[in-house]
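[09:14] KT: can someone run the structure on this one? pasting the chain below
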Amino acid sequence: MSADRMEILSADELGRTLNRLASQVLESVADSHQVVLLGIPTRGVALAEVLAQRLEALCGHPIDCGSLDPTFHRDDLDRIGTRLATPTQLPADLEGRDVVLVDDVIFTGRTVRAALEALQAWGRPRRVRLLVMVDRGHRELPIQPDFCGRVVPTSRQELIALCLQSIDQEEGVFLVKEAG
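[09:31] RB: done, structure tokens below
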């Protein structure tokens, strides 16, 4: 990471925020066995895995966790460019389940819209919720997270970076100013 970054959440604050989000998810469902976490690539997948561990510690049983790649459902590929799609990995049948889509940052809302469209191909969950670590504003669609770690107003020249120990060998959330 560049030296031109500002810490939004320290490792300890990130840990407390993850615990709060896990508690909020549990409080929102009638049966924790019906919860399925689906991470949106790329950082949403790692975040979903961390949340699944926190939820398991709270409720005493494993939580179904997988990934949902919305790449081919996006309406803005010409603007953002393409990346190599990752295969969707569903841990269980979604029919009648409480699905929580997990992403690191919500920005325009277009990724979430694409994820909702992609989800339709995999069944009809009882309910779909959205959990994000950071809401940075600049929405282009009327999509809001149900669970949010932190709201951080940004300019379009700034980025939010979620760092997780398993990937980055450090933890925290950082505001990064783009060069130029």
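[09:33] KT: thanks! The domain at 12-157 is CATH 3.40.50.2020 (Rossmann fold).
[09:34] RB: yep, looked fine to me
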